[in-house]
Amino acid sequence: MAAVRSSQTLDEEEAAVAHLAHLSVVAAYSDEHDSDEDDDRTPPVSPLPADDPPPDAACVVCFERQPNVTLDPCGHANLCDVCVSRLVKRRCPTCRARARKVAIQRPGEQVVTKGVREVIQERKLRESKVLEDTLQVVFLGPEKVGKKTLVRKLISKFPHPTSQLNEDHHSELDVFSDGTDFSANAAIYGANVRLTVLRRTTLTSRRMVLDDVRVLKPDVLVLCCSAHVGATFNTILSWDKVLRNNFQKPRLWALLTLDDKDGPATTKFDTAHDVSGAISAIIPTDLRPKSHHICSLGEQFSIGFRSLPKDIVSLGRIARDQELAASIALEEARSLADHEAAGTIGDQAAAELVRANNGIEVPSSSTSVPGHGSRGGNSSRGNGVGRSFSLRGFRERNSNNPNGSSGQGISVSNFFNWLAGSHES
Fold first, then answer.
1. Where is the composition biased (Low complexity) (predicted)?
2. Across the strands, what pairs with 225?
């Protein structure tokens, strides 16, 4: 019994040490918005001998890739080149010393020494380019419903031209992502797509789930459940509520079934039957999932493997277009506000700007618009577009609109409708 207790005590101590080590690693990381200014209070560090890590060692941050980076000046060599590019505070995760330079040793290449700031900037530029060219699709839901099998089957059915270069990589890296790899692993109907499975499978911490999803920068969210277990469908209903209240991204539901394990017919029917009722219960209608699919994970059939990827690509492209339109509208709103504040833009110039950028037919300044007064404040000329280009005026009209709710600020549709003349003063 003493030997058993001793073994248990050692196991507990090892677990505690591992937990403390993990906390120190996490503490060395920060959000992208954290300051990365140098800290003069960092004490001088004596370099450690840069011994090569054991062959079976793993990066102390991702626990997946092998370490290939040596930090200067502390000399620790337990990070991979991917994770070192995300050290926004530029501190060693082991000793917390400020890292100035890194020596990177990639397989078959010479050692390259760079500044940590340079490595981080290169990662941001590379990431921005990849994100621009690749749709990001995240699969999430409870464990053991077949999410990984679904993604691997999609990757196999729609292989990306560069996927063969990654055949020797660990299969988990092709399915999961920690937000460090946004490159395409599938080519679906002419689109570069990154299919990723969210590691987290429970909603014990909503904040952590939302943080995990944000890191992956999704264009489309696919919620997965088993067609054989009704409880998993109830779980994705909870997931869906959290996601639709925090992300304006298209969502799809996928019910996963196995060809060789149909299970009780009533269970399968009831689960499928609940889908339409659950969707109808979501109010307002624009918050409902865009579509739902039944997908077969067996080898004999490919049910759902045509409709699901088509919806993924089409909805992803629509989401990108809407995001671009919102960005353009916000930029134009800021530009108009700046010009108006400076008094450097006239009514006709504003109308031409809107017409050129958005294709909206705006009346010229010579056109009489009944029911609209002249522009007040900084101009005595008549307002040809029939309303002030003041954002304050737009907010007031928007908040007083009987068809809309007050206090919502500027939306893309309301902003364009207002410019086009659909709102009366």
1. 377-390, 399-408
2. 255
Q: Distance between terminal CA atoms of the chain? A: 85
Q: What is the DSSP track for 93-113?
A: TTT-PBP-EEEE--TTS--EE
Beta-strand ranges (E) seen in 18-173 are 69-72, 101-104, 112-115, 135-140
Work out the percent of the chain whose per-residue pLDDT is above 90.
Answer: 36
Q: Which residue among 63, 96, 124 closes a domain?
A: 124
Residue 289 CA neighbour count, 13 Å, CB half? 28
Dihedral (Cα; 175, 180, 183, 188), 10-degree rounding = 40
Count: domains in the chain:
3
- Cross-strand pairs, 238: none
Token pair 């991702």: residue: 62
Q: Which of 190-194, 261-265, 358-362, 402-406 has the highest mean pLDDT?
A: 190-194
pTM of the prediction?
0.61
Residue 284 phi, psi dihedral angles, 5° rounding? -75, 170
183 φ/ψ angles, rounded to the nearest 5 degrees: -70, 155
184/45 same-domain check: no
pLDDT in tens, 139-150: 999 999 999 999
Question: Does one domain contain both 105 and 216?
Answer: no
Assigned token pair, 43: 């004490």
The CA distance from 94 to 61, in Å, is: 10
* DSSP of 381-418: S--TTSS---HHHHHHHHHT-TTS-TT----HHHHHHH
Query: For 291, which DSSP code?
Result: E
Token pair belonging to 149: 């099998």
Cα–Cα separations (whole angstroms), residue 40 to 31, 37, 114, 137, 329:
21, 9, 21, 42, 43
Does 272 lie in the same domain as 172?
yes
Question: Among the three residues 100, 124, 148, which one is the final residue of a domain in this structure?
Answer: 124
d(C-alpha 14, C-alpha 100), whole Å = 32
The position carrying tokens 């394990």 is 261
